[in-house]
Amino acid sequence: MRFDATCRRTGRGSRARRALAVGAAAVTLVALTATPAGAHYYSGGGANPVFTIRPYSYNATWMPPLDRALTNWNATATPADITKNSGSASTLEVASYSGTWYGLYAPSGTRANRTFRIQINSRTITRDATNFANFVSSSTTHEFGHRLSLNDISDGSHCTTAIMSYCRNRNVMHQPQSHDISDVNEYY
Prior knowledge:
By secondary structure, the chain is an alpha/beta fold. The protein is 35% helix and 14% strand. Strand 4 (103-108) and strand 5 form a beta hairpin. The protein is globular and about 35 Å long.
């Protein structure tokens, strides 16, 4: 059986068309199952929700809200388990950066061997925070969310329901919300 470029039958083609349809359905199924079904999945996360970060040391103003970000995720009903380990290649840095952002997450390596660098911008946070501790925790918790395969939500539909939302109130929301928890549990 042969088909011309428009898939018209030039011989016995009905079986070949069915085979093509089955093959296309299989490719679609593989494509749909290759990544989690959630709308807010981020492929820059790690394959495992248990990971380490190199210990960091800042002054008494910064340390409690930075550490609270780890506790925020560890206390959720998810498999997230973030600990400090001096042998970790992943880092968290607080400095005054010229950008307009509050935090940045930069992944390295493969998903199976993910390391990362989180940068927290002291300049913008100090300028914009009315509740400093919550703002720092919110920004840092959000960045750890990326390591847990959560993507940014910028559409405005989750301003009050997701730590991953750009429009959340960082002075108030500093913990993962049910939407974030649900997504992490879907991915792991």
